[in-house]
Design brief:
single chain; alpha+beta; DNA polymerase, domain 1; 10-stranded mixed beta sheet; binds adenosine-5'-triphosphate; ATP binding; motor protein; cytoplasm; microtubule binding; Kinesin-like_fam
Length: 763
């Protein structure tokens, strides 16, 4: 199932004028005009008579109410949530386009946004389920709420003065990204939720900017966990509602230094998100999720369940290019496929009293850094601790029951809620496991043990062995938890150093890369605004971080040539005193009457842009310059939604990734059998021995199995080598020195590969 994308055009604000409206909603041609609109139309910034159209699942016009949006888009997701599907709803758009209004909304009943309405729907359904099952199914709701501010994660249930400056760490846990040490608060009524939510929102970072008096300076993520407990099963599902911060054009915000830092972090994370979406849509093997915490947490395309993106748009001309950019992003996002997999209900340990299985740690949970995670999304590490304390005995990881206890009760209870929902094969298989009950609300992991227990080949002894292995694991886990329970005794200094270490772990080698990405991002921003000199400058600053990106180099070259040519033309004109000539074959004239954005070069803030600053008037643009512009409509289509975008900057790892031709420290390989690194001659491609040729052939095959089979390589390294090769695109590794310079390889490994082949007797 793909991400569902709907657009919402906000009404004009007080200071905005009707005549400036350029974004409109439309129904598809030939369709029923009474049908809800699904198309957003916006003029071509270079030619008002042309328009671009973008189709989405739905488009909400300026007069659409909060109720309409909720009823059509969000209410239907509630039942899926209770059927075990996770849902993710996020608002995306430029600053001041109405994301917070859509997600949170105002205080009056009519103004309430998606989040309070969603919770209201959740509680209503809770009551219905409890009533329909005469109390046999109990539903518990809890929430965590956090923000990503300047790429740091902060718990919104903690006031800013109590926060650790470095924020909460995030970790990958079985494919899911979790925030460690997040508070999870139970909230059993809408009133309770609203109280907690309002309190937490006070802690959210907002400030006044020129474009929005209450601008969100962070991405806010609300995670609502729903636990449905029957006599035999526990099913957990989660709704994530995300109010992303909006991208900002800092020339329009008049931001001060602090706001600029925030803005740069916001823009960077949104840029990375766009890169991820682009990489997914191009089916690239590397999706740069890890380059921003927001993209790691959002994990668009990696998450399961239902995903709804609400694209917020401002209707007015002052947002023209930003709106196009958002529309283009949304257009790509709608193609992303999300696996429609539900969370499986797991058997609970019926020995435990019902209430104890779903108790929640609440605000007592403390941060427990640098230790393994063992539960699901946004793991609340204190949760199991609380459970354990609630009973005298430690809770068993699982129990084995006799055949007498069949899972029919569970099957019927759950299936009555899951009518019409596709089930996975694995689940069907797991349902067949009749004899197992699992610990508390643990996810399906324990089922695997159960499946193994049911394998026909397992003897009683191996079952015993498995059980004692699981008990050992649990005891080890408990020991770890006990150890970290004493974490409060850590000194602040030690805590600080741990935080630093975690940051370093997270950052790894990303520093240079993110700096380079920042420059690319700024280049793109300048480019869409038609500021060539500053674009060039940003590309030049980015080049050292992507030295092997040929497209970047050619882009720089093309820009330099174009700027030179333009300056030459300007110089010629000023010398001859000639005014614009209509007969000039390769020039187009910006119509003075039409405020076409792209033809009028806006002044830039950058110091070296004096030449551009002088250009307050519309200027001549060469035809090729126009055609190269980011928003040119696709050829042959005046109403095409796919306008060209710059895709040339897929990230490449810095220097070490690609093969370096001349690196002093590299070993020199000689192709005679007994020579070790450090020998004299450099192998020339034409002089390679069969062994070298064979190694290079295997490497260039990009076949992970063949590469892994080379001596001393192993799965991880083979994977890294293939990633390097993919990033080299069509280029190949031509000699052993280049091979040694690949990331994670080195001279010793290459030597091992050679020795391995000799030992095999083939060479
Ligand atoms: N549908 C709407 N109806 C009425 N007013 C709206 C609507 N959408 C937005 N607004 C108003 O527009 C202004 C900006 O909205 P909002 O703060 O929600 O923008 P935002 O996209 O969240 O901005 P930022 O990214 O800076 O936080 C607010 O005054 C808000 O009340």
């Amino acid at each position: 199932m793909s991400v569902r994308v709907v657009a919402r055009i906000r009404p004009l604000l007080k200071q905005e004028l009707d005549k400036d409206t350029i974004v409109t909603a439309d129904s598809p041609e030939g369709g029923n005009n009474a049908a809800s609109p699904t198309i957003v139309r916006i003029p071509n910034p270079k030619n008002d008579t042309e328009s671009f159209s973008f189709q989405f699942s739905s488009v909400y016009e300026q007069d659409a109410t909060q109720q309409q949006l909720f009823d059509s888009e969000v209410a239907p997701t509630v039942k899926h949530l209770f059927n075990g599907f996770d849902t993710t709803i996020f608002a995306y758009g430029v600053t001041g386009t109405g994301k917070t209004h859509t997600m949170r909304g105002g205080k009056s009943m009519a103004d309430r946004g998606v989040i309070p309405r969603l919770l209201s729907g959740i509680y209503r359904r809770c009551r219905k389920i409890e009533k329909d099952t005469a109390g046999a199914t109990q539903v518990e709701v809890s929430m965590s709420y956090y923000e990503i501010y300047c790429d740091r994660v902060y718990d919104l249930f903690e006031s800013p003065d109590k926060r650790t400056p470095s924020g909460l760490p995030i970790r990958d846990n079985g494919g899911k990204t979790v925030v460690v040490g997040l508070t999870e608060k139970p909230c059993s009524t809408l009133k309770e939720f609203e109280h907690l939510y309002d309190q937490a929102n006070i802690n959210r970072s907002t400030s006044s900017t020129k474009l929005n008096a209450h601008s969100s300076r962070s991405h806010a993520i609300l995670c609502v966990k729903i636990t449905q407990t029957t006599e035999t099963t526990v099913q957990v599902s989660r709704a994530s509602a995300i109010d992303l911060a909006g991208s900002e054009d800092n020339r329009r915000t008049d931001n001060n230094k602090e706001r600029l830092v925030e803005s740069s972090a916001i823009n960077k994370s949104l840029f990375v998100l766009a890169q991820c979406v682009e990489a997914i849509s191009k089916k690239q093997s590397r999706i740069p999720y890890r380059e921003s915490k927001m993209t790691r947490i959002l994990s668009l395309g990696q998450n399961n369940g239902l995903t709804l993106m609400i694209l917020n748009l401002a209707p007015v001309r002052s947002y023209h290019l930003d709106t196009l950019s958002s529309l283009n992003f949304a257009n790509r996002t709608k193609k992303i496929e999300v696996a429609e997999v539900e969370n499986e209900a797991v058997y609970r340990n019926i020995v435990k009293p019902l209430a104890a299985t779903t108790s929640i740690g609440g605000s007592t949970i403390t941060r427990q850094p640098l230790r393994p995670l063992n539960s699901a999304h946004n793991a609340n590490l204190g949760e199991r601790e609380t459970e354990k304390k609630s009973g005298d005995k430690p809770v068993k990881a699982f129990s084995v029951y006799s055949d007498a206890r069949k899972s029919n009760a569970r099957a019927s209870a759950v299936s009555s809620q899951n009518q019409g929902i596709r089930r996975t094969e694995t689940q069907a298989r797991k349902r067949a496991a009749e004899t197992v009950s699992t610990f508390g609300s643990r996810p399906s992991k324990t089922f695997r043990s159960a499946d193994r227990l049911n394998e026909p080949g397992l003897s009683k002894a191996s079952i015993e062995a498995l059980i004692s292995q699981r008990i050992d694991e649990k005891l080890a886990e408990k020991a770890l938890q006990d150890a970290s329970a004493s974490a409060p005794a850590l000194s602040t200094e030690l805590q600080r150093r741990l935080d630093e270490l975690e940051h370093r772990i997270d950052a790894k080698e990303e520093d240079g890369k993110s700096q380079g990405l920042q420059f690319l991002m700024m280049a793109k921003q300048h480019q869409v605004r038609g500021e060539e000199i500053s674009t060039l400058r940003m590309y030049q600053l980015a080049l050292p971080y992507f030295p092997e990106n040929e497209k970047l180099k050619s882009k720089i070259q093309a820009l330099e040539d174009r700027i030179k040519a333009r300056k030459g033309a300007e110089h010629d004109r000023s010398m001859s005193g000639a005014s614009v000539s209509l007969s000039q074959p390769l020039a187009l004239i910006a119509p003075l009457t039409k405020p076409s954005v792209s033809l009028v070069q806006p002044p830039s803030l950058m110091a070296p842009l004096k030449a551009e600053k002088k250009q307050a008037k519309p200027r001549l643009l060469a035809r090729d310059e126009l055609e190269d512009e980011e928003f040119a409509p696709a050829q042959g289509s005046d109403h095409d939604e796919s306008y060209a975008s710059d895709s040339s900057f897929r990230y490449k790892k810095k220097l070490s990734r690609g093969p370096k031709k001349t690196t002093k420290k590299l070993p020199v390989f000689c192709d005679s059998a007994n020579v070790t690194s450090g020998s004299v001659s450099t192998s020339q491609p034409g002089e390679q021995t069969p062994r070298t040729t064979h190694i290079l052939k295997i490497i260039n095959s990009r076949d992970i199995n063949q590469i892994r089979a080379l001596k001393g390589v192993g799965t991880k390294r083979a994977d890294a080598i293939v990633s390097c090769l993919i990033e080299m695109e069509d280029d190949e590794v031509h000699d052993l020195e280049s091979l040694a310079s690949l990331k994670g390889v080195g001279g010793k490994i290459v030597e091992n590969m050679r020795i391995g082949l000799s030992a095999g007797g083939d060479f």
